[in-house]
Amino acid sequence: MDQMISKVSKFAPTNEFLLQGSIMENAHDVLLHRLRGLCDNSDSPFETFTDHEMFFSIKNTTITQPLSLRVRHSLVEQDSWQVRYAGIAEMGDKNRPTMVRHVIDCSTSDNIVQFLNELGFRMDHEFVIKGFYFHKGRMKVTVSKIYKMNVPGNTDNLEPFSTSSLVELSVVTQQSGGEGIAEDMKSFSEQLKPLVQLEKVDHRRLQNL
Question: pLDDT by residue (tens digit) across 152-188?
């Protein structure tokens, strides 16, 4: 089993502060140029990514709630694999500008899927995500579109889920509290209106719809 994952980086539990929204295709390019002007390295070309994401879960008599892990790897850069555990997002009260959830990110090797299957995990779903990312200090912004894989495991035969793009503003930190982080994110999100409305999204409520 020790050989199943040949490389694992050091990791520590962190908090992720998160705001989410969506934007239609006709405003997509305008938002990208707005972000380029607001974010760091405004004179550089757009930074892009194309990733394959797989969601795994495990449940047995000793686990009351399924344990879920996300495996993500780049379809552009070789040997770029990561596994993430994300806890349930805390919405907080109305005065808290962002969601907060505990996350653990770990770099791994390309045999992570085999390793998880050996442990008893099973894949729930997978998709390809393509998009752009920007940085403003410690904040990260992604504008991306999610694609359905028409053939399981085939990352070439794709179909977009919708014509809209997902917009996420996040900060990952080991810092406790985070009131200053949340306020910075709120201030930044205000500069993106009316193109996109970034807000707290209750994923638990969406799952019950």
Answer: 999 999 999 999 999 999 999 886 666 789 999 999 9
Q: Name the stretches of the chain with pLDDT < 70.
A: 1-13, 61, 63, 91-93, 175-178, 202-209
For 59-178, strand residue ranges (E) read 67-74, 81-86, 99-108, 122-136, 139-149, 158-160, 165-173
Cβ-proximal residues to 175 (8 Å cutoff; 6+ apart), any chain: 15, 181
Q: Which of 204, 170, 174, 200 is nearest to 185 (CA)?
A: 170
Using alpha carbons, select from 33, 37, 71 the residue that is nearest to residue 52.
71
Q: Which tokens hold the place of 194?
A: 């009316």
Task: Convert 19-38 to b/e letters by CB count within 10 Å (16 or more is b).
Answer: bbbebeeeebeebbeebbee
Half-sphere exposure of 78 (CA within 13 A, CB side): 0
Mean pLDDT, all residues of the chain: 87
Q: How far apart are CA 140 and CA 167, in angstroms?
A: 11
